[in-house]
Amino acid sequence: MQARITLEDVAALARGCAVLGTGGGGDVRPGAIAARRAIREYGEVPLVSLDELPDDALVLPLSGIGAPTVSNEMVHGTDEPVRIAEEIERIFGRRPAAVMSSEIGGGNGVAPVAWAARLGLPLLDADAMGRAFPEVQMVSMYVAGIPANLVVMTDVVGNVVTIRPVDGLWAEQIARAVCVAAGSSALMADYVLTARECAGAVIEGTVSRAIAVGRATEGAADPLAALTEELGAVRLITGKLTDLERRTTGGFVRGTATVEGTGDDRDRTLTLEIQNENLVAVEDGRVRAMVPDLITVVDSQTATAIPTEGLRYGQRVTVLAWPCDPLWRTPKGLETAGPRAFGYDMDYLPVEKIA
């Protein structure tokens, strides 16, 4: 177990989170800048496991909510996590003991380093997705059957909204409406739990995992091969981005991206369906990979992950796919974040069987 997150770790963490973000979770660059600044100002961030926390310690899951295209322009400041922590202390009568990323993918996996440093708290080596998902209820705690007891949100203006939803689905509906009112970007805490309640309800080791993924390409003669091996991924196609349709609506980025194969993949075409994240990959009417498995677009030369808002015509890319955490393959996991949860009329098939 890595004891602390240092300045030297931020670049690897950011690269790994970008890969695990499957195109979403927000751009890692603002989060990496904020993390480095916070470490310089407040010190290195302890990285702790659940068994290092007292059973009654409060764990504060934090994430940005909204459209990634908006969050790139409306960057969170340093006061938002303070406002949320103060509201949590007011409600529970005690301070949080650790920060946790709600989703390890994208900027939401990197920025918690800055938030934890600002609050003077350790970062839990865990998250609630093992990747990135676009909706509030798409977290491991919901799959584990824990009630969505509380959501606290704040925006760049300083508004603080506390929600007491009846379940995770209502948490998504109300939080999304608040997010849209805030300009489609806000900071959110939900499923504030004790360390005892987190056991079995969060996905452990994901911060360390992201750092390992990020380090896999450092100094590699073939970064793409090194990343593919580290992930245990399937290469779906290598080619050029030839068509892109993308729009921001209802607090999400939605659209499609088309990759035409080059080299050994010439005469092949792969289409990606997007809702913040890459959800489904289709070739000639046949699904090659689908949520909740992970689908990521990377630069073919550097193996750097490209977020959905960073896709551009003409980019030379490779599309990789690999298995999700086993939690998402349970009946409740598939009901929550399988293809039908996003409106696709298809039964889930594991990527290792169909790709």
Automatic annotation (TrEMBL):
Coiled-coil segments, which residues? none
- Source domain of life is Bacteria
Q: Which InterPro entries match?
A: S-Me-THD-like_C, S-Me-THD_C_sf, S-Me-THD_N, S-Me-THD_N_sf
Task: Please tell me the species this chain comes from.
Answer: Microbispora bryophytorum
- In Swiss-Prot or TrEMBL terms, this protein is called DUF917 domain-containing protein
Q: Which residues form the S-Me-THD N-terminal domain?
A: 8-163
| Taxonomic lineage from the root | Bacteria, Bacillati, Actinomycetota, Actinomycetes, Streptosporangiales
Q: Which residues form the S-Me-THD-like C-terminal domain?
A: 168-351
